[in-house]
Amino acid sequence: MKKMLLFVCAVLACFSLHAQYFCTVEGTELHYVNYDEAGQSVSNETATVSFVGRNDGKVTACYINKIVTNKLKNNTSYTRFDWSYDGNQTVCAEDLVYGPYIDSDSDPDKYDTAARTAMREELKYKGDNSFVLKEHAEGGESMPDRSYALIVKMLKNEITISGAAYMGEEQISTTAGKFDCIKITYLKRTKVVLKSTTHRVTEWYAEGIGLVKSESYDMKGKSAGKTLLVKIVK
Question: What is the pLDDT of residues 163-182, one digit of tens each?
Answer without folding.
Answer: 999 999 999 999 999 999 99
